[in-house]
Amino acid sequence: MANRHLARSVAMQSLFEWDFNGCKDGNIGKILDANVGEFAPGMEDSKFAKELVEGVLSNRGKIDSIIEKAAPEWPLGQVAMVDRNVLRIGLFELLFGSRKEVPPKVAINEAIELAKTFGSESSGRFVNGVLGTIYREIGEPGKEETSKKKQIVESAADLPVEAKAGGVVYREDRGKQIFALVHDVFGYWTLSKGSLEAGEDAPDAAEREVREELGIDDAKVIEKLGQTEYIAKDPEKGQIRRHVTYFLIKTTDKELNLTPSGGLDDARWFSPKEFKDLKTYPDIKPLLEKAIKKIKGEEQ
């Protein structure tokens, strides 16, 4: 067994025991030492096992919150104990580990192998699904803008393209406009969007996506706002170019009912005055500003 895989196995067994005995952080050192002695005597990389265990515990609040949001149909307390702690290790490596030492694909694959070894028949698929969902979203915070303001790097031209469509959704509220934004597990407010289905054009896809994601019935495309393109990471395809076409979309619905999905945890209405205080991705506020100008007739 490779040394680092063995270290991950010992870390998982130690976290399992810690979890089983009531999550008492003060006991983890003794638990880890005992497991190293029993399952990996003479292991050269025991330091790595310690880093994993301590890293999971010190970031447990954020890690557990992201797991719950990425798998909303599975409250953390109902997730099998093995799966829960494998996810904690995998997510710690994805979000807080060194990508040079442990690339994301390696972190995910190692977690899947741990789940298959120590969990149930379905554990590998479950862990793959949750970490894959989170990994797809990781492309957002570090995404590389490839719009007119930033030239596409030459190597990006050969990457596969994933077409998406989304919208700046607004409604009238006492003579003024308010706008619907969705919140992701990384703490950013962004716009509702999704992939085009077979035979679907971008405007139809945008209307369908905002209806499904925001839980609204009325959604009408007014006009096209623009396009953005960025480099993202897919757990199966690797790097891809995500090409998103955004539309100005009007609704008369007042209530937003976010469809639970991996990566998103909230949807709210905001007035333009509130935009400046929101944490958003670089391309979102310019799109919102353009939408406001379109509504006011200041931009053709």
From TrEMBL:
Per the UniProt record, which residue ranges are transmembrane? none
Q: Which domain of life is it from?
A: Bacteria
List the InterPro entries hit by this protein, alphabetically. Answer: NUDIX_hydrolase-like_dom_sf, NUDIX_hydrolase_CS, NUDIX_hydrolase_dom, NusB-like_sf, NusB_fam, NusB_RsmB_TIM44
Functional summary from the UniProt entry: Involved in transcription antitermination. Required for transcription of ribosomal RNA (rRNA) genes. Binds specifically to the boxA antiterminator sequence of the ribosomal RNA (rrn) operons.
> Can you give the residue ranges of the Nudix hydrolase domain?
160-292
Q: Which organism is it from?
A: Candidatus Giovannonibacteria bacterium RIFCSPHIGHO2_12_44_12
Pfam families in the record: NUDIX (PF00293), NusB (PF01029)
Q: Quote the NCBIfam families the UniProt record gives.
A: nusB (TIGR01951)
Name one process (GO BP) from the record. Answer: DNA-templated transcription termination
Q: Which Gene3D superfamilies match?
A: Nucleoside Triphosphate Pyrophosphohydrolase, NusB-like
Question: Which UniProt key words apply to this protein?
Answer: Hydrolase, RNA-binding, Transcription, Transcription antitermination, Transcription regulation
Q: What is this protein called?
A: Transcription antitermination protein NusB
